[in-house]
Design goal:
By secondary structure, the chain is of the alpha+beta class. The protein has helices at about 5-10, 150-160, 200-210, 225-235, 255-260, 300-315, 370-375; strands spanning about 20-25, 35-40, 50, 55, 65-70, 70-75, 90, 105, 110-115, 115-120, 130, 140-145, 165-170, 175-180, 185, 195, 215-220, 240-245, 265-270, 275, 280-285, 290-295, 325-330, 335, 340-350, 355-360, 375-380, 385-390, 395-400. The chain binds adenosine monophosphate and magnesium ion.
């Protein structure tokens, strides 16, 4: 059985990158840059005032003040600045261009204004309240590295560089194939022994969060031929096939042999984690699809997909940081653990005595969706641990970071 770290390393090594495409900025949120975004113009493009007030040249201020200067002209936003008269100040608005030769802005609030001009005292520092051209980004500087995942502010940065489109990795195509004789569509007639299929919806949502487009294959019963047939169809035009259920050692678990019969070479099929021990990963030989065989228990399926599938989808897009980081947070209460596998414990994060603290849920069963639906994070409890005291730091993967 493979360790979590080893399995994830195997999964993320040498992942082939998807081809690049151009998308408009408005649909680029969450996408991964396939080439660096380089500043073709300085940011800011010209020196401007950060305050409403008066702009002047400090060389015109002799002595220690207070000073009086006449006011000549105005620099307004959206137009070129007027020339600065020697020995005078000029009215200026926030965002308006600083006239050539001027080097300081006096905020309106520190100035006494009268018909004859302005009066002020105190230190006037060259450069004050002026944002210099190129001070944020010089021409030729890298604004966003290749492999950056585009957040809202990155879209703003691209727009400020006049980009209307960005070059990103194409969205990975995910196909979901659920298996199990007991499954029926949610909302369909109740049948004794059957349960609503509840894994496709959350898996599609998680895959979408990782940038994928999702296709759902009709679910298949626990039958070898039907499973093989469905897998053959599902492998077509897919970058990642997710099978759900039927990957364990039961008499009716056909996914593993069916995958192998369809030319999928499995890299591993058991990982020493809880929940989610039966987890298969492989690649379709002769095709390009990667395959994750997820366990059917809902909490296991969603947690293993979050830990393995989402980083894999991000790696396919060339994401420089495909896996989310963990943060160390204190336990709100004592935690006991059966030594064995590394466990991902569903927890709430709640303020206790002024610190965000980790509160494990009671029901950690592999089939229990309640505690996962209510959870803020997964706390990582190493295999050898028996107890952890209240206040002990544990590594937590916040679900919002997925
Ligand atoms: P399996 O991995 O096929 O052995 O299934 C393990 C457990 O998960 C069983 O209790 C199944 O009924 C349940 N299960 C499997 N697939 C799904 C699904 N798509 N939706 C809800 N429960 C499922
Ligand atoms: Mg099953």
């Amino acid at each position: 059985m493979m360790s979590f770290e080893a399995a994830r390393e195997r999964l993320l090594v040498d992942v082939p990158h998807l081809p690049a495409e151009r998308v408009v900025l408005d649909s680029a949120l969450g996408r991964v840059l396939a080439e660096a975004l380089v500043a073709t113009a300085p940011i800011p493009p010209f020196s401007y005032s950060a305050m409403d007030g008066y702009v002047l040249a400090t060389r015109d201020l002799v002595g220690t003040g207070p000073w009086s200067l006449p006011v000549r002209g105005e620099s307004r936003t959206g137009r070129p600045a007027p020339a600065l008269e020697v020995g005078a100040a000029c009215v200026i608005s926030t965002g308006a261009e600083v006239p050539a030769g001027a080097d300081a802005v006096l905020p309106r609030e520190v100035v006494e204004a009268a018909a004859a001009g302005i009066r002020f005292e105190g230190k006037v520092r060259p450069g004050q309240h002026i944002r210099r051209a190129g001070e944020d980004l010089a021409v030729g500087a890298v604004a966003l590295e290749k492999g950056s995942r585009l957040g809202p502010a990155a879209l703003g940065l691209a727009a400020s560089l006049d980009a209307t489109e960005v070059v990103v990795a194409r969205r990975p195509r995910v196909t979901i194939l659920c298996t199990g004789d007991e499954l029926r569509a949610p909302g369909s007639a109740k049948v004794p022994g059957k349960i609503p299929e509840s894994n496709s919806a959350p898996l599609a949502a998680l895959a979408g969060m990782a940038g994928a487009t999702v296709r759902r294959h009709p679910h298949v019963g626990d039958d070898r031929d039907a499973t093989e047939h469905a897998i053959r169809e599902a492998l077509a035009d897919t970058d990642l096939l997710l099978t759900v259920g039927g990957v364990s050692v039961g008499d009716h678990d056909w996914v593993r042999p069916a995958l192998e019969a369809q030319g999928v070479v499995l890299d591993f099929w058991k990982v020493s984690i809880k929940p989610g021990k039966p987890l298969a990963f492989g690649r379709h030989q002769g095709g390009t699809a990667a395959v994750l065989g997820l366990p059917g228990n809902p909490a296991s399926a969603l947690i293993t997909f979050s830990l393995f599938g989402m980083p894999l989808l991000r790696a396919m897009q060339g994401d420089r940081a495909p896996a989310p980081s963990f943060v160390a947070l204190p336990l709100a209460e004592r935690l006991t653990h059966k030594p064995g596998r590394l466990e991902f414990v569903r927890v709430a994060l709640a303020p206790r005595e002024g610190r965000l603290s980790v509160v494990p849920f009671e029901n950690q069963a592999s089939g229990a969706l309640t505690s996962l639906a209510w959870a803020d994070g997964l706390a990582l409890v190493p295999g050898e641990v028996e107890t952890l005291d209240a206040g002990a730091l544990v590594e937590v993967l916040r679900l919002q970071d997925l």
